[in-house]
Amino acid sequence: MRQNPSFTLADVAEIRRLIDGNPWATMMSSTPDGLVASHYAVLLDETREDLTVVGHVGRPDDLVHGIGETEMLLVFQGPHGYISPGWYGDVASVPTWNYTAVHLAGVPEILSAEENLVVLDRLVDRFEGRLPAPRRMWERPNDEAFVTRLAAGTVGFRLTPTRVVAKRKLSQNKPPETIEAIIAELEGTGPYADAALASEMRRAHAAGNGTRS
């Protein structure tokens, strides 16, 4: 992802927030057989305060990606959407796409079976916890044997990135009145309305993260 000073996101807390709020990641690796990509839920490592993440893949994706040996790129995609030039008023302009994205690259380490179970437990709790009657991993008498057997078909990993590229392209290069017009359209009822993207724009500009170029 090409970086642009106007849209660079360097605040670790904000990057962590985007990862935490958008855990469905695309993982890519360059292998002797060519590029490969997979999609899995990935979480921040709760024992760390940096951008280390943990996750798992189903076998044989660990071999397909060369986990533990090959550099992996994890891509997290936050709110994004189409921005019409008609929202800028009667000025020369072109369509664009506003978005937030985080790229983490590094060689992941393979977790032990015990560590993998902890990660799987966290994943279940993270997503089941929103339900009125969540199904936990260990709540039934025979769950331990069942979960242990299924966990053996997965490989857990921890990735501490050696390269990070985070970008928040949210009309920072536009004047305040144009930004407000775009947000109003996103908060409206049109075909490209997107409340999440509007909220992300308000957050970025209210915090003074945008810079004019």
Description:
The protein is an alpha+beta fold and 213 residues long. The protein has a domain at 12-124 and 153-174: Roll (Pnp Oxidase, Chain A). 30% of the residues lie in helices and 30% in strands. It has six helices and eight strands, in the order αβββαβββααββαα. The protein has an eight-stranded antiparallel beta sheet with strand order 6-7-3-2-1-4-5-8. A hairpin with a 2-residue loop joins β1 and β2. α5 (176-186) runs antiparallel to α6 (195-206). The protein is globular, with a radius of gyration of 20 Å. The protein starts with 11 loop residues before the first helix and ends in a 7-residue tail after the last helix. The model is unreliable at 209-213 (pLDDT under 50).
Q: Which features characterize this protein?
A:
alpha+beta; globular; Pnp Oxidase, Chain A; 6 helices; 213 residues; single chain; disordered C terminus
Major β-sheet strand ordering: 6-7-3-2-1-4-5-8
CATH architecture of the domain at 12-124 and 153-174: Roll
Main β-sheet description: 8 strands, antiparallel
**Terminal Cα span:** 20 Å
What is the fourth-level CATH superfamily of the domain at 12-124 and 153-174?
Answer: Electron Transport, Fmn-binding Protein, Chain A
Reconstruct the topology from this structure.
Blueprint: H1 12-21, E1 24-31, E2 34-44, E3 53-58, H2 61-65, E4 72-83, E5 96-106, E6 109-110, H3 113-128, H4 143-151, E7 154-159, E8 163-169, H5 176-186, H6 195-206
Antiparallel strand pairs: 1-2, 1-4, 2-3, 3-7, 4-5, 5-8, 6-7
Helix pairs in contact: 5-6
